[in-house]
Specification:
alpha+beta; BirA Bifunctional Protein, domain 2; Rossmann fold; Translation Initiation Factor IF3; five-stranded mixed beta sheet; 34% helix
Amino acid sequence: MARLITPRADDAARWYTDVVTQAKLADYSPVKGCMVIRPRGYALWENMQKVLDGMFKATGHENAYFPLFIPKSFLAKEAEHVEGFAKECAIVTHTRLKATGEPGAGAVVPDPDSRLEEELIIRPTSETIIYAMYAKWIQSYRDLPLLYNQWANIVRWEMRTRLFLRTTEFLWQEGHTAHATHAEAEEEALKILGIYKRFSEEWMAVPVLHGKKTPKEKFAGADTTYCIEALMQDGKALQAGTSHDLGQNFAKAFDVKYQTEAGGWEFVWNTSWGVTTRLIGAIIMSHGDDNGPIMPPRLAPLQAVLVPIWKSDADNAKIREAAAAIEKTLLAAGVRFKCDLRENVNPGFKYNEWELAGVPLRLECGPKDVEKGAVMAVRRTTREKESIPVGALATRVPALLEEIQAGMLAAAAARTQAMTRPVDGWSAFTDEIEKGGFLLAHHCGQTPCEVTIQDETKATVRVVTADGPKESGVCVRCGNPSSRRVHFARAY
């Protein structure tokens, strides 16, 4: 099986695209900037969705669905919000087409008689349409808190796209909540941040920093944006999830009020939060190698695959019988498992195919294995081999998958730690940023200075960590006083 993956050391960007396409996770759409998520990639997203959905529901959230189309006037009601999204919006202006009789691309044009009285925005995010509905649904303190989430698609007209990481259309979840007090909203925003951190580390095996975004980097319309930030193998940071304290900005714009227990009227306090199919990109870039992606076992569409090996018809029958018993055992043990019994496909081809798919564990079963009553297990991460007695498969395979999961997190955490370093002085900063990784540097906290740093180095403040130590110093760029170090990096 020919490998069509560019070595990461030669071209990290090309490597990433090759892995996504050759592993059959996604492909380019005829619509520029959009992607087709293939079954293997969508199965991974479904597993991620299932886990996160359970976490949200366990904390009292309910799923709902809101329209894809948003009246243009809604977006204009919150000034900072419209400024933040104005350049990314796709707009619907007409409801039908009209044939011109001309061949080719000009055969149809918008029917001028169908122009909309008010143009519609294809949702870049749903705060405006959701809070317009909350204004109808919330009347009393008894209606609060309102804890809703939706799984949906989003359209943001991107100039430079990359599969999963940044596409014109993508999938995500967006939570939107309304509370009686700011303290409750703040607690909600931080609770969700904790869920995102736990999911990233415990399920994706991707270690993250958590904390606040700077005013420059926060969500348009939020008072405070909290985030998790991960470091990829190439030394670039990836924003993996955000949770926003929206204050009362949207409540005032859409007149979302509630009657208090004392009889007065108050504006609600809102939060919004979301993660996207970008998380699939994070898994690939955190764990993948030159042979393809490596799926964390807890989320892998297939956790283990069995490749039978035979040379004769007599071996074939015995091994098929053994394979059927192994399949029954592992499926009963809750392992997402497949037995590859394809004829006329040699084992080497199958090894390569399942390695390229990122399956965490490959099982091999040949005539000698059948005689011994065992199966050979090969880890996708280290290629370490282990012979497992058939009678122990139901317990050893799940345990081995957990070992692989823990090993992936440990390796990613060690790499992140090795690529995180303190830097003092502008000259050292500009030299070190070329090497990638997180730079811990003092910063004055002023947006103009932050803009200057980005313009000169393409690095941004990725996160002001929640648990960062206080340490007096001077800003790495302007020399003004600084009370702590923050994490800078170049990012996707």
